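[step 3/7] fold_predict: job queued, chain A
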Amino acid sequence: MHTFALRRRSCWVARALGRNPLLRPTDRVEACVILVAILLALVAAPVCAAAGVAVYGSRARLYAEQAQTRHTVAATVIEESTDTHVPHITSISVRATWPVGVGARTDWFRTARRSKSVTALIFG
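[step 4/7] structure written:
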């Protein structure tokens, strides 16, 4: 029966810093590279976490601001797109107009069905 045990001498840290004359220089370099990689990962983890928190916070503020400024309006379809039929696409493009303050605004939208009116989510 074979047993496996990690002894203090066989540890890669001991390889990098030990005085064993039988170790090749490449073994020592490999152990040092592993040590540097582990230390780099330990240092980089908090930096990446801080960057993630900053991005999350800025996006959360942006989405909250957008939620405050958008509203639903009923728009009237002016024309439908003349695109050829594309398989597995269940939406069509329509050009619609809706009232804004004093005048009206016109833009293209994607909708699931053909209709004379479309409900759009407008920013601003």
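[step 5/7] annotate
The longest helix spans residues 25-69.
The chain has a mean pLDDT of 79.
exit 0
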